[in-house]
Structures are given as structure tokens and as C-alpha cells.
């Protein structure tokens, strides 16, 4: 759900989003949205739970950005992409094609730092790079970096 916070504050939404895979979007007019909230307590409670979960996720991401090194954030992001999108038939290559710029945004770093980090991980034989595709060559080490690296 995009733009709900601005909707609830009756303000403009100043951000944008771009899909990285085929996506179907739906639009719910503001009037209908508020009618649903007013007339359906279960919907309102579910919406509050969603807001709380999203708030927690944003706070967790901020803590990661502030405290984790780029290598650790990159490893976490690669594991998340693997879990979210799965692997190709070779059971190593992440089943999504991302530009280095898009991946840098997910990791919360600049493109140059991401490329350096990916190159280091490749030299360490943790991953293998093939254009915009990334194969996980040593899942155990990637997990170690994601969860224990300082």
C-alpha cells in the first residue's frame, strides 16, 4: 500500500515508486477508503496492524543503515532477494534481474560502493557475477556475513 500516510494526514504524497517486475495496481478513491474505515471496525484494526508492521520495518531498516556495514547490508539484501524471488534452475542464481543502481538503492548505498562490495564478495567466492545476474556460490558464508559480520 503506497501513500496511506499522506492520505491519513490529508496531505500530498511526495514520493514515487517504480516496480522491478510486472505489477498490477489498484486505485481506491479517498472517499471509498474513508467509508471503509468508518463502517468496518475489523478493517480499521487490520489497517492499524499493517501501519504498525510497516513502521517497525522502517525502523529496523533505519537501524540497519545506521549500524551495519555495506558488506553486511549487501549480504542481507541478497538473501532477501533469494528468499523473495527464488533461484533459477541451477539453484544458485537469484531469479531477478536488477541494475546495479536498483540494487544499490535496496542496499541503501551508492552504486560505486555496491560494485566494490560485489566485486569483493565475488573475489571471496561468495557470489558469482554474470552481468545483472548474481549467483550465490557459498550460502553458508553469505549467511555468516549477513548475521555475524562486523
Would you summarize the structure shown here?
By secondary structure, the protein is mainly alpha-helical.
Provide key terms for this protein:
150 residues, two-stranded antiparallel ribbon, 7 helices, 2 strands
Explain this structure.
The structure is a single chain. The model has no long low-confidence stretch (mean pLDDT 90). The radius of gyration is 19 Å and the shape is elongated. The chain has 150 residues and is mainly α. The chain is built from seven helices and two strands, in the order H-H-H-H-H-H-E-E-H. A two-stranded antiparallel sheet has the order 1-2. Strand 1 and strand 2 form a beta hairpin. It starts with a helix and ends with a helix. The chain has two domains: 4-66, no CATH class; 69-148, Winged helix-like DNA-binding domain superfamily/Winged helix DNA-binding domain (Arc Repressor Mutant, subunit A), CATH 1.10.10.10. It has helices spanning 4-9, 30-39, 41-67, 70-85, 100-107, 111-123, 139-148, and strands at 127-130, 133-136.
Amino acid at each position: 500500500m503506497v501513500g496511506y500516510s499522506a492520505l491519513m494526514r490529508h496531505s500530498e504524497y511526495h514520493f514515487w515508486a517504480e516496480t522491478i517486475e510486472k505489477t498490477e495496481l489498484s486505485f481506491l478513491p479517498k472517499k471509498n477508503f474513508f467509508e471503509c474505515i468508518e463502517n468496518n471496525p475489523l478493517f480499521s484494526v487490520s489497517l492499524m496492524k499493517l501501519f504498525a508492521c510497516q513502521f517497525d520495518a522502517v525502523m529496523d531498516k533505519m537501524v540497519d543503515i545506521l549500524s551495519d556495514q555495506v558488506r553486511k547490508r549487501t549480504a542481507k539484501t541478497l538473501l532477501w532477494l533469494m528468499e523473495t524471488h527464488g533461484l533459477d534452475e541451477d539453484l544458485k542464481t537469484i531469479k531477478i534481474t536488477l541494475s546495479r543502481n536498483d540494487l544499490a538503492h535496496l542496499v541503501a548505498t551508492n552504486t560505486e560502493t555496491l560494485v566494490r562490495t560485489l566485486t569483493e564478495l565475488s573475489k571471496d567466492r561468495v557470489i558469482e557475477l554474470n552481468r545483472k545476474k548474481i549467483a550465490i556460490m557459498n550460502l553458508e558464508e553469505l549467511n555468516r556475513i549477513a548475521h555475524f559480520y562486523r
